[in-house]
Amino acid sequence: MSSASPSPVRRTRRFTVAALVMATAMILSACLTPEQDSVLSELNADRRANNRTTLAVQADAQVKAQAWAEKLAREGKLYHSNLSDGIGVRWCSLGENVGYGGSVASVQDAYMRSSGHKANVLSTAWNGVGVGYAKGKVNGHNVVFTVQVFIKTC
Questions:
Q1: What pTM, to 2 d.p., does this model score?
Q2: Cβ partners under 8 Å of residue 43, min gap 6
Q3: CB 120 within 8 A of CB 97
Q4: 3-state helix, strand, coil in the chain (%, to 5)
């Protein structure tokens, strides 16, 4: 026998899961440092300017992005991570932008001038993001490293 609507228990479970996801996202975005919040704000401003929905912080992606930004800053060089490392949640797709420059805004501007990075920023496939920020030196110059880890959970 099939039913057109979920049972009260299933509706309650769905509501509880949805409420927990929303609460976690709110807590995570409230726990961002001002610098991480700047990375997220720049990213979401570009998404809004291009008629895309904003992305909320996803816990695993956030931890990964910050750790990777710190690693890049320590080493003073730029390269991509192994995307699935540190992602424990079930995911269907992952993407990553890594960059450095004089400011968060200048790095975001560079992402938007690069077709591949811009495609990540504007993709409608993502339903979450992690953002990392760290200060470092490249060729003796003080720079900021930003990392954006995009995720589609499934």
A1: 0.81
A2: 55, 108, 121, 129, 131, 148
A3: yes
A4: 50, 25, 30
Which residues, at least 6 apart from 78, have a Cβ–Cβ distance to it below 8 Å? 72, 98, 99, 100, 145
- Residues 13-70: tens digit of each pLDDT: 554 444 444 444 444 445 999 999 999 999 999 999 999 999 999 999 999 999 999 9
What is the Cα–Cα distance from 11 to 14, expressed in whole angstroms? Answer: 5
Nearest CA to 126 out of 32, 39, 43 is that of: 43
Q: What is the CA radius of gyration of the chain?
A: 17
- Report how far apart, in Å, the C-alpha atoms of 115 and of each of 79, 97, 122 are: 17, 12, 10
Rounded Cα–Cα distance for residues 154 and 93 (Å): 9
